[in-house]
Write a structure and sequence with these properties.
Layout (H helix, E strand, L loop, with lengths): L3 H13 L10 H10 L10 E7 L5 E7 L7 E6 L10 H7 L9 E6 L11 H13 L8 E6 L1 H17 L5 E5 L11 H4 L16 H8 L29 E7 L5 H13 L5 E6 L14 H17 L2
Parallel strand pairs: 3-4, 3-5, 5-6, 6-7, 7-8
Antiparallel strand pairs: 1-2, 2-4
Helix pairs in contact: 4-5
Organism: Anaeromyces robustus
Pfam families: Abhydrolase_3 (PF07859)
Protein name: Alpha/beta-hydrolase
Length: 313
């Protein structure tokens, strides 16, 4: 049984933040209007947020404690939002506490260009561009990569690309409800459709006709003409041999539940026991981000912080 706060929050999400394109046909326009409200940096005493660009014009933000201590460890975080939403201050709020875990941690937030104006491989190219900039000054083993939803997709794709092109890996990775399968093969699309407060319909089951509408909708617009089975588009098709230490967190009521479960299964099948899965009963998409709202999210958030501490030991 989930907490009362979570039950209330689920109602709020279903009523005000549902992004099912069948229910909301003008999805891109709606997301971009909501997105504008969160583009201003937060002002939190004791921390500094700096906006920068690489030589290739890849935008990013640096979050540090307001001290003179040099950073030695990096949390490189990739935000979600179906590749349609821009980087908002929600992610500043989410990641600032990571700076308190050690005296030498710095958070990097990639501010990638969004769809439908910018499609694959724009976001992956920008993520890799920033990785190359970071690793000029930091050892890959001093970097943890994280991401949620489409940012989880991008984080996994980036890790696969780094390994394929450089034969190196970051220290570890954490992934919150990663969107890993653009072909939509997971049965959870159907079994969780009426439970999912963000992507479902409460009183209407998912039919094959509706599923086809979803797959061809604006929610998938970042793909463009790319092959949906390309591992950099759908990381579920990637090779997870010798995958890094990893933490996956997902809610049991998500349509994307199987997008996580299948990845974890693949990692374990390749012989790695260095992967942890939290499949939280009754929870919704990317629920740890709302750690200030309900106890289940706070518990998951504490798990992420412990994972970071343990990975950097």
């Amino acid at each position: 049984m989930v907490s009362l706060r979570t039950r209330i929050f689920r109602i709020i999400i279903r009523n005000y933040f549902n992004i099912n394109p069948i229910v909301h046909p003008n999805l891109v326009e709606t997301i971009k209007k909501i997105n504008v409200k969160g583009l201003k940096d937060i002002n939190k005493k004791g921390y500094k947020i700096t906006r920068k660009e690489t030589d290739n014009k890849t935008r990013y933000q640096i979050i540090t404690k307001d001290t003179n201590k040099p950073a030695k460890k990096i949390i490189y975080y990739l935000h979600g939002g179906a590749y349609i939403a821009k980087l908002t201050n929600i992610y500043q709020t989410f990641t600032i506490p990571f700076c308190d875990l050690r005296d030498d941690i710095e958070v990097i937030l990639l501010d990638y260009d969004v769809a439908p104006e910018y499609k694959y491989p724009t976001q992956l190219n920008q993520a890799y561009d920033l990785w190359k900039v970071l690793t000029k000054n930091y050892n890959p083993k001093d970097i943890i990569i994280g991401g949620d939803s489409s940012g989880g997709n991008l984080a996994l794709s980036l890790i696969l690309k780094i390994k394929n092109e450089e034969n190196v890996s970051p220290k570890a990775g954490f992934f919150l409800s990663p969107w890993t399968d653009m072909t939509g093969t997971g049965k959870s699309y159907y079994t969780n459709y009426q439970k999912d407060v963000q992507m479902g319909e409460k009183n209407s089951p998912l039919t094959q006709e509706k599923f086809n509408i979803l797959k061809d909708s604006e929610i998938f617009c970042f793909i463009g003409d790319a092959n949906r089975e390309d591992p950099y588009v759908s990381p579920i098709y990637g090779d997870y041999t010798d995958f890094i230490k990893s933490l996956f967190i997902v809610g049991s009521d998500e349509v994307l539940l199987d997008d996580t479960l299948e990845i974890v299964k693949k990692i374990k099948e390749k012989g790695s026991n260095n992967v942890e899965l939290i499949n939280q009963e009754g929870m919704f998409h990317t629920y740890p981000i709302f750690y200030k709202t309900n106890p289940e999210s706070k518990e998951a958030y504490e798990k992420i912080k412990n994972f970071i501490i343990e990975s950097f030991e």
